[in-house]
Amino acid sequence: MYLIKLKANKMKYKAIKYITMITLAITTFSCVSDDDLVQADPNVATEESFWKTDEDAIKGLNAAYVPLSWFGMYARNTNLMLDGRGDDVRTVSRWDLMGNIGVFNVSPLAGDITNWAFIDCYKGVSFTNQVLKNVPAIDMKDQALKNRILGQAYFLRGLYLFHAVNMYKNVPVPIDVNPFQAQKPQAEGWAQVIADFKAAVDLLPLDYNTSNTLDAGQLGRATKGAAMAYLGKAYLFNKDFENAKNMFKLVIDSEKYRLMPNYADNFSIAGENNAESIFEVQFNQSASLISGYRITTGRAATYGPPDFGFTDIQPTFTLLNEFREEKTVSNQDDPRLDATIFYNRPGMKIYGQDFATHYANTPYLNDIFCKKYQNTDTKTTDTDFISEINERLMRYSDVLLMYAECLNETGDTQGAYTYIQKVRDRVNLPNLATVKPNMTKEQMREQIGHERFLEFALEGHRFDDIRRWGWLEDETKLDWLESRDTEFKGYKPGREYFPIPQAEMDTNKFPITQNDSY
User: Fold this and answer.
1) How far apart are CA 504 and CA 180, in angstroms?
2) Which ranges in 384-484 belong to alpha helices (H)?
3) CB 469: neighbour CB atoms within 10 A?
4) Is residue 53 within 8 Å of 9, Cβ to Cβ?
5) For residues 257 and 259, what is the distance between their CA atoms, to the nearest angstrom?
6) Which pLDDT belongs to residue 153?
7) Does residue 344 have a pLDDT over 50?
8) Which domains are delineated in the chain?
9) Cα(139)–Cα(183) distance, rounded to whole angstroms?
10) What average pLDDT does this structure show over 129-145?
11) What is the distance between the alpha carbons of residues 453 and 103, in angstroms, rounded to a whole number?
12) Is the dihedral of CA 490, 496, 498, 502 positive or negative?
């Protein structure tokens, strides 16, 4: 279940339930019609009886947030899928369904990881479509609340479809509650994503601090800033640099966000919902909405180092070495290194223990492991699959670097320096305009690739960047990627997208064409 954090009162979520029909098997000689045999359970809310009040609308909307926190989405699988194919990550899991992600060898028949992500994504779309279908007809007491609810539903549908189109390419694009939907070309999918985020921008508030209604003061809800940032990202992924630039500039000019002084605050419980976070998935087991169901994430366990997690993925040594290429102005290592990677250096602690001491006389002593999103300061292990660290999906630093990229692509390479430097200043790196002055557009593209590689390591951005920059179609770049991460030797054209699950192809009454190379 997805948690909406409250500053004051906590709302209880009530799942939307469909009609439960009771069919009575009666052997009788009397005349009984089919209608007499089918009755609605009076103890269960039906679609017809549910969507009546402001409170119903909020509960229905809350249900639409739920799949973001499921294992198919950001409790585990989607993280693995987004991270696993980048050159910042080695996918070393002994479970072949995970391990095959990194070597571009996923099967359409695979049952758990990629298929589960597909299913949960479309459950999210279904929940948002129910809100968008039913809420407009509710005679709500508060029209502004109604607009906020619809705005969030558009945002969430845009986000779920963003993932579907971005990861699976040509997919169904449901905008109604019909369970069967035809496959659409990727361009049509992107067009719907953009339309949904546009609608969200128009309807959402900058925050929920001023509302005095059912959503007053609630953290975790989508805002206008989140919608603008994701709209800009959708434009950017479609190389519409001008529109993307305009959206990112609106986010910057809103002055709602700033970089946190401590980079590591973006990946801890203590730093949740901070000034840098534009949108994040909320996890908190103490606010369970259904008895026995924890709102927690398995990311820490899945990514965790040996003895403290299951080490299904590890950072590449390429990432470690690139962090060390440039010293800070005080001649120190980039502080993002120690926030991102566990490695053997004097003083490195790992879940309260000294790294070198714990791994002495083991193969792990000179290996490296994921630190970002680990509970290393608050727990002694993460093997319980119970982590409460929120997943930050959109950070202000991402907006700054995407804006810099748009400036460069639209002819203002010099202007890009300013926004890149804001991110570098946070970690005390030298002035880029001094150490690399007057770069060409092509040189700046490469620099932005480097800046994003370090800033967003293990955050699911790298492979998306590689694909959208066209590096997989560039033989020289592909060779370079293989030299950095040997898993790229498994790549072949078409494998930049995941396969459409065979179950979808078998059950959808509309014909589905599989992605190339599967």
Assistant:
1) 10
2) 396-409, 413-426, 432-435, 441-455, 462-468, 475-484
3) 16
4) no
5) 7
6) 98
7) yes
8) 21-222 (1.25.40.390), 300-387 (no CATH), 461-496 (no CATH)
9) 35
10) 95
11) 20
12) negative
Question: Which residues have a Cβ under 8 Å from the Cβ of 185 and sit 6 or more positions away?
Answer: 170
How far is Cα 389 from Cα 377, in angstroms, rounded to an integer?
Answer: 12
Tokens of 424: 């570098």
Q: Are residues 283 and 297 in contact, defined by beta-carbon separation less than 8 angstroms? A: yes
CA end-to-end distance (rounded Å), the chain: 34
Torsions phi, psi for 128 (to 5 deg)? -65, -35
pLDDT per position as a tens digit, 160-214: 999 999 999 999 999 999 999 999 999 999 999 999 999 999 999 999 997 678 9
Residues 383, 360: contact at Cβ < 8 Å? no
Q: Please, what is the Cα angle at 411 between 407 and 417, to 5 degrees?
A: 45
For 287-313, what is each residue's pLDDT tens digit?
Answer: 544 434 468 999 999 999 999 999 999
Tokens of 159: 């986000």
CA gap 389, 75 in Å, rounded: 10
Q: Are 309 and 374 in contact (CB under 8 A)?
A: yes
- Nearest CA to 65 among 130, 127, 151? 127
Distance of CA 163 to the CA centre of its chain: 8
